[in-house]
């Protein structure tokens, strides 16, 4: 999924998720693999194609994966550098649910306006 995001391969992003997956973000949630890929695409577009996600480390087992990442982007003269933890629930090789664990104020401030 991370490689697909950085390649701008939204079909690859969608393929990483189960069709009924739920992405729990800073202020709400998005349901469905295609809808999650569309959200990522919107963020890429809003950042003027500067959104990058560096995967720092991954810890996991058969049911859960914890990803430590650094998200960077530029928008309207502002720069985002956000260290984020995602918790993924996985089954049958697909992400069923994703939970954002970071400071939503950092994200909200950057993506607003």
Short key terms for the protein model shown above:
six-stranded mixed β-sheet; 4 helices; 6 strands; about 110 residues; alpha+beta
> First CA to last CA: what distance?
28 Å
Shape designation: globular
- Rg for CA atoms: 13 Å
Q: If you average the pLDDT, what whole number results?
A: 94
Q: What's the SSE pattern?
A: HHEEHEEEEH
The percentage helix is 25-40%
β-strand amount: over 45%
Which strand order do you get reading across the main beta sheet?
2-1-6-5-4-3
Stretches with pLDDT under 50, minimum 5 residues: none
Number of helices: 4
Structural class label: alpha+beta
Largest sheet: 6 strands, mixed
Total number of strands: 6
What does this structure look like?
There is one protein chain. The chain has 113 residues and is of the alpha+beta class. Helix content is 30%, strand content 48%. The chain is built from 4 helices and 6 strands, in the order H-H-E-E-H-E-E-E-E-H. A 6-stranded mixed β-sheet has the order 2-1-6-5-4-3. A hairpin with a 2-residue loop joins strand 5 and strand 6. The chain is globular, with a radius of gyration of 13 Å. It starts with a helix and ends with a helix.
Give a short summary of the structure.
With 113 residues, the chain is an alpha+beta fold.
Secondary-structure map with pairings?
Elements: H1 2-7, H2 10-15, E1 17-24, E2 29-31, H3 33-46, E3 52-60, E4 64-75, E5 78-91, E6 94-101, H4 104-111
């Amino acid at each position: 999924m991370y490689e697909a995001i950085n390649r701008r391969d939204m079909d690859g992003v969608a393929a990483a998720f189960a069709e009924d997956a739920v992405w729990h973000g800073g202020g709400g949630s998005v349901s469905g693999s295609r809808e999650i890929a569309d959200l990522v695409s919107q963020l890429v577009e809003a950042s003027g194609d500067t959104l990058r996600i560096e995967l720092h480390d991954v810890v996991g087992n058969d049911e859960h994966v914890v990803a430590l990442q650094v998200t960077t982007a530029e928008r309207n003269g502002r720069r985002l550098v956000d260290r984020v933890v995602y918790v993924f629930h996985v089954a049958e090789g697909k992400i069923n649910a994703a939970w954002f664990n970071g400071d939503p104020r950092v994200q909200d401030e950057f993506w607003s306006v």
